[in-house]
Amino acid sequence: MAEIYYDDDADLSIIQGRHVAIIGYGSQGHAHALNLRDSGVDVRIGLAEGSKSKAKAEAEGLRVLSVADAVEEADLIMILTPDQVQRTVYAESIQPHLTTGDALFFAHGFNIRFGYISAPEGVDVAMVAPKGPGHTVRREFEAGRGVPALIAVEKDASGNAEALALSYAKAIGGSRAGVIKTTFTEETETDLFGEQAVLCGGVSQMVQYGFETLTEAGYKPEIAYFEVLHELKLIVDLMIEGGIAKQRWSVSDTAEYGDYVSGPRVIDPHVKENMKAVLSDIQDGTFAKRFIDDQDAGGPEFTELRAKGEAHPIEATGRELRQLFSWIKSNDDYTEGQVSR
Ligand code: NDP
Ligand code: MG
Ligand code: MG
Is the CB of 108 under 6 A from ligand 1? Predict the structure, then answer.
């Protein structure tokens, strides 16, 4: 059983004695910066020239500097720009200003795991990865709770990197919920697999196929939307509360029996073979290279795939329906930076 750390296992005074630079002020960046500040930690934000986030950070009373100046001032640098730009920001504006005794922190192991970033001698390399979107990390903290987090140490130059990571996790609320120790390799590979095979890729594709199957058979798109997308949240909430077993306990016997006989027909053993192939592409770096090569070319494949996803008929149906829902407010504001893409 993995060891889980809570508030009592972490010493907040360690991070309170450091000078932290948060690079990037997006989904994770704003949450880490504000939670650290509210935990009594000295924080500054590093952003590129002309950054759109600058005004938002300043409106919260945070000090915004260039990335280079923020790194220069700080002795703990948390990199929270999108993964695909981290290596350029690192090479140009972070590495030249690192000195012995500094700590380089990440919220996802991608760039270290796939060798796009390597830190100089004498610098701690660690990870504090909240297992939730940044906006939840902030909201839960403000409510006196926290989002569980993973910590990992890639390089323990100081001999205290783990205690430092745990202290950071406490300051952003992670150890209120629970902190689990992992490695950069395990976090990166399982995170990519989870989002590709199940959470984002798998679920999205399954919802689209379900919607297509019903509408192609002549059922109304609005009804199809409710059955294959809207109710998903209710089912997932039950799973989170009590596992798949609680979900099966709560639904009707008809639904439970249908789950047993039709689930394995839809998600047949080929799907597991496909998942293994996806995992293998993650482990050997094929996925990372494809993503970064596309990004370096300006993201043509990414842009095309995003447009294709947005053009799926389920999106138009959902947009219309959600306008009519009195109980879900302004969900379609997400493009205004509400939710990270
Ligand atoms: P975002 O896409 O929300 O980050 C955007 C921020 O980065 C903005 O402030 C943006 O500035 C800034 N930025 C973009 N390019 C540069 C640059 N070249 N130099 C300086 N700043 C730049 O990132 P996320 O919060 O989604 O991800 C950050 C890290 O956290 C990643 O490693 C990710 O894997 C990890 N993570 C993310 C989670 C999430 O909830 N999204 C969950 C757990 C981990 P501007 O306003 O100018 O565009
Ligand atoms: Mg991820
Ligand atoms: Mg039903």
Answer: yes
- What are the pLDDT digits (tens) for 143-160? 999 999 999 999 999 999
Write out the residues surrounding ion ligand 2, Cβ under 5 A. Answer: 191, 195
Residues taking part in catalysis: 108
What pLDDT is recorded for position 1? 82
pLDDT at 340: 36
Thinking of the domain 4-182, which architecture would CATH place it in?
Answer: 3-Layer(aba) Sandwich (3.40)
Residues of 58-97 as b/e, b for ≥16 C-beta within 10 angstroms?
eeeebebbebeebbbbbbbbbbbbebbebbebbeebbbeb
From the alpha carbon of 111, which atom of ligand 1 is closest? 32
Question: What are the sequence ranges of the domains in the chain?
Answer: 4-182, 192-336
Q: Ligand 1 pocket test: which of 22, 34, 47, 339 has the largest number of ligand atoms within 8 Å of its C-beta?
A: 47
Indicate the pTM of the whole model: 0.92
Predicted confidence at residue 337, as pLDDT, reads 40
Q: What are phi and psi of 211, to 5 degrees?
A: -65, -45
ipTM above 0.95, yes or no: yes
Output the CA 84–ligand 2 centroid distance in Å.
12
